[in-house]
Here is the input.
Amino acid sequence: MKDIASFESGVLSEVRPGVSRPPKELWRKRKGGLVVVECPQRIPCNPCHTSCPTGAIVKFEDINDVPAVDYAKCTGCALCVAKCPGLACFVIDIACGDGTALMKLPYEMLPLPERGGVVKCLGRTGEVVCDGEVKAVAEPHRDRTMVVHVAVPEDKVGDIRAIRVV
Amino acid sequence: MREIAADVLVVGGGPAGLSAAAEAAAAGAGVVVAEAGLHLGGQLVKQSHKFFGSRDEYAGTRGFEIAKILKDEIARHGDRVQILLGTTVCGYYGDEGVVTAMTGEEEYFRIIPKRMIVASGAQERLIPFPNNDIPGVYGAGAVQTLMNVYGVVPGKRVLMIGAGNIGLIVSYQLLQAGVEVAAILEAAPRVGGYWVHAAKARRLGVPILLRHSIKRALGGEAVTGAEIIELDEKFNQVGAPEEIECDTICLAVGLTPTSELLWQAGCRMKYVPALCGHVPLRDALMRTSNENVWMAGDVSGIEEASAAMIEGRIAGVCAAESLGLKAGAKKLDGFWERLGNLRAGETGEKIRAGVAAVTVAGWEGEAV
Here is the structure.
């Protein structure tokens, strides 16, 4: 089966408009983490902005704009992670500084992970990147989109975008 | 024969029809909603994903929750809205001002509406290939109904044909239901649906094969697999076909407007590929060339439910106003602005062109 993991088929391979990466220096010290957004197509959608309590996801001039992030205002609260219908927001906390990072990932599958359990961390094409330890399972909007907090090796945060409960 | 009078008859109880009914009832009109299905909400009741759009269109809310919100809005109008479930509107006799309808297979009756809003939605397209009539070949709508309305999974391993929003979303819902998705095939060189929907399926391990299509279904009594084939840029088959094992083939290859009633009503129709079929000419008020008939939602051209709800509100307001009711015509500017915003981006380009091709400034001088 000739499956090419191209951008045109839904796999991100490079930073482009609509893909937000935090500035390294701020990222290192911001406890709670900062949001990474991977929404590279102009579509009529803005719940990331309307759900953001601090205005870190900048107001949309046009609802079709791709999201822009003002990182000075981001607290890593992950309300956008739970609200985005495209599951395109992820919060990554690298402030710990011991080689581990905490990722807050959206999750809409069953079974639910358990705190303290180990899950498989998946990359952008579903490949297993590594194991991760579940630190918390939250449901910020009480709408069955979970935000799972997973401890992972810091050098893997660019690759991990989902989890699988095993 | 039973006869029901209505100020406004709304044909179809989906997102467009319910929105239209809510606006017309709010203006004081007596509304009858005829819904062919067994419940209100149309496709919304199967949509377990969160909506895009803005807050005004319930962005971030799951489709079935939006159906509840619309039903609650209708319920607040009490007796002013009469709901007829299991009821198909099947005949339009304009000269006598009569519409005929059937409830179930038994009762045939007449509705005498002053105005009619057709929000009859769309039907699925199918593509021809050998063996497409064996058990296990489904339309995506049927898969969604089975899973999300009745709680039944269609199979264990599904091959999805089509990477538009429906194909991508239904694939994700299959994964949520614990069903394996063998692959999503897409004949075009890129996914047709929103990129983020593709990414959601991708990161759960679903391959998306661009420039691929199904050649035949395999199996005798039921589907056991499929033969797939690569396509070149002119959609010619290249290379040797390949077999994929699956017990379900799900077709998500597009929709076409369900416009029979509008033809019967003598509305001027036009074939517009960008709107996925024959659609009625309309003015900005969503009125057809038949001055007593309005339209809203997919029957006016295939688009997202968020747009259908706004069109429904426009049609509801305007049909009520035409009866001399004060429906708040000043709301219209807001509706048009929201509709314009939804269609403003690149993904709305096709819709904008299609709508422009069938929108008239006024009916004077338009041959009817």
Summary: Residues 7-165 of chain A form one domain. The CA atoms of residues 106 and 126 of chain A lie 15 Å apart. Chain A has one domain: 7-165.
